[in-house]
Design goal:
four-stranded antiparallel sheet, disordered N terminus, alpha+beta
């Protein structure tokens, strides 16, 4: 089953919203997956990525063979801060590279065999701001440093020949470990004279790199913003988020304001509270009510204290005692009556799910891995997947299915779509299963992963965004789906 693709520009925007919403963080040691996500996101965001930007982004999983962990991490931090250009960030990462154990051994061997008379040789071998021999090797991987050590130390005259020897070994080693185009782009990046002041997407010079050390707000185009506006929301030097729709920028995150979709209690101004206190009484995201006079808060409702004393078999409302046996006024023992809400009925003075009620299955977003079960990219040229979701339900001989659209080049695809509508609660409880597929315009679609979602009566609380992780199987990878069950209107 195939679903139509959507525009790349829309996916790029949604990808960055979800990227911040899920809290992706820089780390002191970026993994290939971390860097790949940042690189591919940057290539989607930037208006005109260069040929090397695309090459390095598409082949990002091979870069640890060439780059040191600190270089990879610095390049990821650069991309996360909003600088456009994978190649540019790799170029700048050399300034933050740190020696590994293999680099330290290279320094010791050089100083022992090539420069035994040089004072403080090992401590100055990687000294910045100088023409130290080690700087040419520092940004490269341990394997590259070891190859330079084997090929360029221990021979007569190795001090004078070290720089030219190291350059030749680096070119040979990287050329053997990664694709020719990737090797060429890496060499070009480290050889370029990247200015200290980088350029943003608009081509204008930007100030000092935006990092957690100098920015408490968010970063856009490598510039620090306050992080408290709808157009630039964020904290901790993460990429600025654009709040959309009814969202507000609250504590550095784009969130819907307090209301039915975000609060089971009541809204005290913009804050969700339990809704059980006399001063803040209420539920389902409504504005809190203050119970005054002879009224008290019971089951999220202000009720007359005298009703509590006299209504022993039913429940209380502001207008007095009720039998407590309807969906709108359910309860007993003189407590506040409960409005069971859509899709529920009152049974034995308690709200229960009406198994005949109709519901819609809403898909919010998913998280899928960048590689398939064989460790290969989903699309040609190391391309990211184009996921879509199929939802199945069944009960006895009755069954339904529906699909979302596909999202281009996304490992965190965001849909906000409703592929199934008007399904009985009993059918959803009997069997609700999802499958996530990678759409391919030219070949058969690839199965990514899926499973049965174990729904319960609690899953039908429409204010809850459910999530479930499908485990990996012989035919698919582990995928995570975020969904919501909504009363059908």
């Amino acid at each position: 089953m195939k679903a139509p693709s959507v525009a790349v520009a829309l996916v790029a925007s949604l990808l960055f919203v979800v990227l911040v919403a899920t809290g992706c963080k820089s780390s002191s040691s970026a993994t290939p997956d971390d860097f790949c996500y940042a690189a591919r996101s940057a290539n989607l965001k930037c208006k005109e990525p260069s040929g090397c930007d695309a090459t390095l982004g598409n082949s990002c999983t091979t870069l640890p063979k060439a780059l040191s962990p600190s270089s990879l991490s610095a390049a990821k931090d650069c991309l996360d801060s909003g600088v456009c250009g994978v190649a540019s960030c790799i170029s700048r990462s050399a300034k933050n590279a740190a020696p590994t154990a293999a680099h330290q051994k290279l320094a010791e061997d050089f100083c022992t065999y090539c420069a035994p008379s040089v004072k403080d040789c090992t401590t100055t071998f990687f000294k910045r701001g100088s023409k130290s021999a080690g700087l040419a090797v520092l940004a490269y991987s341990e394997e590259v440093a070891a190859a330079v050590d084997d090929g360029c130390t221990g021979q007569d005259g190795c001090q004078a020949k070290f720089q030219s020897c190291a350059a030749a070994v680096i070119a040979e080693k990287i050329g053997a470990d990664v694709d020719e185009d990737v090797a060429s782009c890496i060499a070009e990046a480290f050889a370029s004279d990247t200015p200290e002041t980088p350029l943003g997407p608009d081509g204008k010079p930007q100030a000092v790199t935006c990092t957690p050390a100098n920015c408490k707000g968010c970063c856009r185009d490598d510039k620090c913003e306050t992080g408290d506006s709808l157009s630039g929301c964020g904290v901790g030097a993460k990429a600025c988020e654009q709040c959309t729709g009814a969202q507000e920028c609250l504590s550095g995150k784009c969130k819907e304001p307090c209301g039915p979709n975000t609060c089971n209690g009541c809204c005290d101004g913009g804050t969700c509270v339990p809704g059980t206190a006399t001063a803040t009484c209420g539920e389902k995201g409504a504005a809190c009510e203050r119970c005054t006079g002879g009224f008290a808060c019971s089951n999220h409702n202000c009720i007359d204290n005298s009703c509590l004393a006299t209504c022993t078999t039913g429940c209380c409302t502001t207008t007095g005692c009720k039998p407590g046996n309807t969906a709108a006024t359910c309860g007993t023992g003189g407590e506040g009556c409960v409005d069971c809400g859509a899709g529920r009925t009152c049974s034995a003075a308690s709200c229960v799910l009406d198994r005949t009620s109709l519901w819609d299955f809403y898909v919010s977003f998913a998280v899928v891995p960048s590689l398939d079960k064989n460790g290969k990219a989903w699309d040609l040229l190391n391309g990211a997947p184009d996921p879509y979701v199929i939802v199945f339900t069944s009960e006895g001989t009755t069954s339904h299915s529906g699909a979302t659209t596909s999202k281009t080049d996304a490992t965190v695809p965001f849909w906000a779509e409703t592929p199934l509508t008007g399904i009985k609660a009993s059918e959803l409880l009997s069997n609700t299963s999802i499958e996530i597929w990678d759409y391919d315009e030219l070949n058969n679609d690839d199965f990514m992963g899926g499973c049965k979602i174990p729904l319960t009566s609690a899953s039908f609380d429409a204010s809850i965004l459910g999530d479930y992780t499908c485990p990996a199987t012989a035919s698919g990878v582990s995928v995570e789906i975020f969904y919501r069950l909504r009363p059908h209107k």
